[in-house]
Design brief:
alpha+beta, 139 residues, globular, 47% helix, 4 strands, four-stranded mixed β-sheet, disordered C terminus
Length: 139
């Protein structure tokens, strides 16, 4: 089986200091047997900045960012929906995830969890990103 070239793959920017994000990436990797998703930890900001200079660090730390081969950027729930399109076991769900009531609820749920992910990490007894996740202060 051939591996898709980097041009055909979808880049997925995630926070490697977030337990929820890491567990999600682990699951997505198992589901992605076609190797369409390329996972990139935003904690390696130099790599992200070099490949995707249009992505802002603070935004990337706040929600998953998915960059399609054509350069289109999807964040949060909309990014997850784009990922589902690439994974055979979930591709059928992508149209459902686009339906107005499901998308409305999905965005709110995603945002609620994303805003609280470090508190959830603490509740799970996991290390919490403090300094590394903060964008550098601007002069």
């Amino acid at each position: 089986m051939t591996t898709p070239s980097q041009l055909e793959r979808i880049a997925v920017l995630y926070d490697g200091m977030c337990v929820i994000c890491l567990n999600s990436v682990r699951l997505w990797r198992r589901l992605d047997w076609r190797k369409r998703l390329e996972f990139i930890d935003v904690q390696d900001w130099q790599l992200v900045e070099r490949r995707f200079p249009h992505v802002e660090r603070e935004a990337a730390l706040g929600a998953i960012h998915v960059i399609a081969p054509d350069g289109a950027l999807y964040t949060g729930y909309d990014g997850v929906r784009q990922m589902a399109r690439c994974v055979p076991l979930l591709a059928w769900s992508a149209p459902l995830l686009s339906l107005a009531p499901i998308a409305w609820l999905g965005r709110r749920l995603y945002n609620w969890i994303a805003r609280r992910r470090y508190a959830i990490n603490r509740l799970l007894g996991r290390p919490v990103c403090e300094e590394a996740c903060r964008p550098p202060s601007r002069p």
